[in-house]
């Protein structure tokens, strides 16, 4: 790993079958997985620290409150059954054995998880984010990480949202005010440099 990448983590969030199949049009899902997969491969080649995040629940969904509209819909449709193919990471984004998987029960990757503990134990300061959906896991995790004083970069084309207007607003207006926004091409150049 290059000296410039020490203290850096790449976090790939919610690249799970049920999310990609239910929250994005198929062509958009394919496009975001392709971009994220390229970054994942380059980060691995560069020896970067990589974390995968998955939203998952116990059998019977005891963590889901009926007041939570999105999670109630997931529960009622049983799309995130713990034993199902849906809950698994899409094959092309599957973690390697040495890459930690953080399991969350809410939208953001930091809330009720040990993600911050892992990052601090590894001396991480710079965080690259990729995930689905931009207005959910990416936005919430970005805000949580910002409050924890991490140096943030969102990889805009390795993120996607069912609402393209929300994606554009977040990546072009909101995120740049508090962190960095780069394309996967820019990130690949960083990793190779």
UniProtKB/TrEMBL annotation:
Residues 8-185 form the Isochorismatase-like domain. GO terms for molecular function: hydrolase activity. Keywords: Hydrolase. The keyword Transit peptide does not apply. The keyword Chaperone does not apply. It holds the Pfam family Isochorismatase. PANTHER family: ISOCHORISMATASE HYDROLASE (PTHR43540:SF1), PEROXYUREIDOACRYLATE/UREIDOACRYLATE AMIDOHYDROLASE-RELATED (PTHR43540). This is Isochorismatase-like domain-containing protein. It comes from Bombella intestini.
